[in-house]
Design goal:
6-stranded antiparallel sheet; mainly beta
Length: 371
Amino acid sequence: MTPPRPESTAVIAARRAGLTRRDLHTGWTVRATAGPVPSHILNETIPAEVPGVVHLDLLRAALIPDPYVDDNEALLNWIGQTDWTYQTTFTVDADHLAPGQRHELIFDGLDTVASISFDGEPLGEVANQHRTYRFDVTDRLAAGEHTLTVAFRSPVKYANAQSLLLGARPRPYPDPYEAIRKSACSFGWDWGIATATSGIWRAVRLETWSMARLSEVRVQAAPDAAGNGGTVTAEVEVEHARDAPSPLELIIEVAGVEARVVVDPGASRATATVKLPAVELWWPAGHGDQPLYAATITLAVPGEHEGIGEPLDSATRRVGFRTLEWDTAKDEHGTRSSSSSTAGRSLSKASTGSLTTHSSREWTAAATFAA
């Protein structure tokens, strides 16, 4: 594993990035609003943990038994047929508000079908557990207390309705898990129970930013042909809060090596590549180590000299380098054997990143890992 190196100016500045993030994970409650709810839970307002799901909240409140014990899975199937509403309040200080700022509420994961409201006014409708949602609340945010509500619909009832709308589809289990953008195993599998749970299963936060931010960051690592050095490339998309008359700067730093490119005024995309003189390859388990490198990407206002001016946003990804090789031996008829061909396909699918042909016998791939 590559030993730690002193932080570059890009890393230090990124910690003071102009974009601020405030987690909204405290003060949440959950309550049942419709469905076959037992009488002892019907009118309860239950403390909730966010990130989390309603099954865990009910367990912590001692309102349900362990669903993994005895026949409790069947006893608790009413939870997936029930609508649940999560709610919290938070306060904003006047000194945290300034002209020209953009304020957005971000939900990294909602499970699954929900209506979101802010201070009693609709903010949005969601129906996908597997994506992030971002809502602009700039015109609604003021000094004082605010109420955030997430009202979940029964995933079982929604999936049943969607199944009728979409038409019958083949499936190995009775519940229409394929008709909702929710983890299929939530409806049960051969190795797990059916819960069909609901909840704010990933982070929630309030982001405040000005000028510009990194709306998307894609990082890819590739070893050189000799397998010694390598390159790391960051492709970013930039969102601007207002007209951008001045250029910005995109900085990528990996293992103490830094590269910078100018982002033209108003440009929505940029790419920066850093070259590393030496890298350690990532090996499968049992064949060697799995070294990962931290890539820090910073969007900034250029400084007057070599340093960074005003950092606006930053992101970090972990990347690894590896090469893949296999034998392309031919069979007795002079054609590639099916086993070799299959092995090649499975290896290419196992890679994350682009796959480039260097010869008939060697491929080089980049492996990128989420931070």
